[in-house]
Design a protein that fits this description.
alpha+beta, OB fold (Dihydrolipoamide Acetyltransferase, E2P), five-stranded mixed β-barrel
Length: 350
């Protein structure tokens, strides 16, 4: 590995040839004179002033007046007499040494994205530009949606905000630098997960809504609430009851490696059990036909209880559509109650 240059080494390598003239491609030490939106001026001592245009400033560091810096010379003498220099290039030249050290030590670092595209986040670290793919974001930041515009919108919200990351691929020759937030938080998530158990009631935030359920972030750990576990009542579409950003309370119903299966409905009493307890086998009840199928009719006998009048209990008729019409009220006799499966079987009262 190439030995990283210290500030003293760089001070000695003043960028001068034997005649004391600054040359293009060399590094020079100096002190920042002024910081403007589109340029930085650097005092190069006896060699005058260095101008750093905006494109050569770089990202991820806020420079201040009076700060000691090292710059790379692009053009030793512009028409106005100043030298055109680069902070970004100088940082990049010595940045790979620091990057390799970070990789060797397996360190977690703090990075700040400066731009986003649909594939992920652009990050500059130690003067070297790298990339964090969407797949390497933590559960907290991963955009659970198939909408490309929504993905980009959520990624742009991360620009300018500090994130923890690990370098998972560093190839100086190929100028490739890949970051992972997911790897950086893995150890902390394992600790959180070790303190969770099936049956716990947890607080979470909805991070994604899909046809089959909702993804929920619980202390950085991803959980899934299947559509059947959202409500005791029938739900047509998840998006009708949940949206990204909603805060929810859920019960852990299973733990699979680093993912949770959650239930929102199980944090409240089952209204079916309460209402079904008022019925007994042999009771005659009035019900409303809600659905008609080839094997029978579903009948609402209370707000939370829907029972089945099977075709075999319809007096010999094998075509429920000839006996019932949707929304009509009829009298039924309760033949069986199975609380474990939440099912009640009915017979038609003639």
């Amino acid at each position: 590995m190439v030995k990283a240059l210290t500030m003293a080494d760089l001070m000695n390598e003043s960028g001068k040839n034997d005649d004391g003239i600054i040359e293009a491609g060399t590094t020079v030490s100096g002190k920042i004179l002024s910081v403007k939106k589109n340029e930085i001026l650097v005092d190069l001592g006896a060699k005058g002033v260095g101008l750093v245009p905006r494109r050569e400033i770089g990202f991820g560091h806020k420079y201040e007046v009076g700060e000691d810096v090292v710059v790379s010379v692009i053009d030793p003498e512009m028409p106005n007499g100043d030298s055109l220099v680069s902070l970004r290039k100088a940082a990049k030249e010595r940045g790979w040494d620091e990057i390799n050290k970070v990789v060797d030590d397996g360190k977690t670092i703090t990075v700040t994205p400066f731009e986003a595209n649909r594939g992920g986040l652009l990050i500059e670290f130690e003067g070297v530009r790298g990339f964090m793919p969407v797949s390497q974001l933590s559960t907290e930041h991963y955009p659970r949606t198939n909408d490309k515009e929504e993905i980009l919108r959520r990624l742009k919200e991360l620009v300018g905000h500090e994130m923890q990351a690990q370098i998972i691929d560093a190839d100086q020759k190929g100028n490739k630098l890949i970051f992972s937030e997911k790897e950086a938080v893995k150890e902390g998530l394992a600790t959180h997960l070790s303190h969770m158990k099936v049956g716990d009631i947890v607080d979470g935030v909805v991070t994604g809504v899909v046809d089959f359920g909702a993804f929920v972030n619980v202390d950085g750990i991803e959980g899934l609430v299947h559509i059947s576990e959202i409500s005791w009542e029938h739900i047509g579409q998840v998006k009708d009851v949940l949206k990204v950003g909603d805060k929810v309370k859920a019960k852990i119903i299973s733990i699979d490696k680093d993912r949770l299966s959650l239930s929102i409905k199980q944090t409240t009493p089952d209204p079916w059990l309460k209402e079904a307890s008022q019925f007994h086998v042999g009771d005659t009840v009035e019900g409303t036909v809600t659905r008609i199928t080839p094997f029978g009719a579903f009948v609402q006998i209370s707000p939370a209880v829907e029972a089945l009048a099977h075709v075999s209990e319809l007096g010999g008729s094998h075509n429920p559509e000839k006996i019932f019409t949707t929304n009509e009220k009829r009298d039924f006799r309760i033949l069986e109650i199975d609380a474990d499966t939440r099912k009640i079987r009915l017979g038609l009262v003639k």
